[in-house]
Amino acid sequence: MQKGSAQGSVIFDAIVGAPFGAIGIRTGQERVRELVYLPPHYQEQAPRDAAAEQAAGQVARYLADPDFRFTLPLLDAGSAFQRRVWDAIAAIPRGSVRTYGHIAKLLGSHPRAVGQACGANWFPLVIPCHRVTAAGGLGGFASSDDENGFHLSVKRWLLRHEGATGFTSPWQQQPIFH
């Protein structure tokens, strides 16, 4: 691995290269504290501790094989409602998507609240919030809804990687996977 950028080496306990950029790993108390999607200018960074090493290895395995299942020790995070949403998201099979409305109905909630819980997800990939979409298209991702932005390009890559079938947005006549 190359040495991380000065910014990356201070903020993250490991950085794993990915086809869309990189994934930053933060650890604490011998657990994974956070996973972060990073743009391509971040360089890989060797793990600093055992939890970061375990997370980096599992992230790399997922990027090579979308059927890989994570078994990382995660730091407790989120409200009780967010954890309920994340549990529902974690149950979505690889290659499938569910809408914010579908998850909301399961939980007796509202689609906007589900979307906010998705945006607050500390453990993307492990809790695959990329598998949650809007009723009429891709929806947002990582608290971003810029159709041509970095985060939605990551969501598209992850859905393609997992073999999710394409679907179209109502404002576009072409598949969301471009």
UniProtKB/TrEMBL annotation:
Protein name from the UniProt record: Methylated-DNA--[protein]-cysteine S-methyltransferase
Keyword RNA-binding: no
Pfam families, per the entry: DNA_binding_1
Classification via SUPFAM superfamilies: Methylated DNA-protein cysteine methyltransferase domain, Methylated DNA-protein cysteine methyltransferase, C-terminal domain
Limits of the Methylated-DNA-[protein]-cysteine S-methyltransferase DNA binding domain: 80-164
Listed CDD domains: ATase
Keywords linked to the UniProt accession: DNA damage, Methyltransferase, Transferase
Family annotation (NCBIfam families): ogt
A GO BP entry: methylation
Species classification: Bacteria, Pseudomonadati, Pseudomonadota, Betaproteobacteria, Burkholderiales
Molecular function, one GO term: methylated-DNA-[protein]-cysteine S-methyltransferase activity
Keyword 4Fe-4S: no
